[in-house]
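Hi everyone,

Forwarding the result from last night's run.
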Amino acid sequence: MILIDFRNWIFDKSLGVLPNAQKELLQRDFDILTKNTDFKILDLGVLKPLSISNLFFKNEEQIAVSPIKDIEAYYEAIDKVLEIENKETIDYTEAAEEEIYFYGQNSLVSHLASEIALCGINEKTDESLFEEYCEDFELTPFSFDLPDDILTSDIACFVGNRLLICSAYIKDKKVKKDLFSLLKVNGISTITFTKEQIENGVFDMKSVGDKLILTQKAHNVFTEDQKNALSEIKTEIINISFLDKAGIKLSDIIL
C-alpha cells in the first residue's frame, strides 16, 4: 500500500495553526500512521491536499487511472504513482473530456476475493464506466443510485469477509434485498450504520491488507454493538488529530 507523504502540505491559517506548528502536527500524524504499517511512502511534490483514491483503482496485477474532473491537474502525480506501482495500466482518462467521470476507489468498493464490486451511481460515477471497470478487473458489478454529494466509499467498506455499510442510502427495496442476497451467497456478513453516523464521519477508514485502519474520531461514532462486531476484525484505531481537523480522510492519503 502507498501512503502519500503529506508532511509538506500547506493548510489555510483559518485552522488556527501557524505554518511551523502545522509541520510539527503533520509529522506527528505521519509517525502515527507509519508506526504499525509498512507503507511505501510517496512524495508527490505537491503542497496542496488531494485525494489519491479518487485517481486510481487497483488490484495485485493492474491499476486503472480514473477520469475525474480537472484530470489534467493531476498528470504529474499520476505518473509518480504509476512508476512506484509498476503494474499493467488501464487508462480511462479520455472519458473526462466528455465530462464522464469516475472517482477510482471512492466510486468502486470491491471484495476482490469474491470478485464483487459495489458502486453508487451519480453525476460523479458513470454506470457505463463502472461496467467497463468490472469487465477489465473481472468483477461482478452491483450498482445502485446515490445522491450526487457522496461516493460509494462514504457509505461502504469491505474488510475481510465483512461489509461495513449504510444501506439506508439504497432506496430501492428490491436492490437492497438483492445486495444482501449476493453477500450471503458469498459468505460476507454486514455491519450496518445510520445516515447520521455517515454525516458524522464514521467511514473515515481504510482496509489495508487484512486489517482495518480507522481514525479515533470515526470510532467514537460507533455504537457499542458496532464496536463489539468490529472486535472480530483486525483493527488499528489511530488518532491523527490535525488531519482530522483539516478534513483529510484516510482514503485521501492511502492507496
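Residues 19-35 form the longest helix (17 residues).

Cheers,
N.
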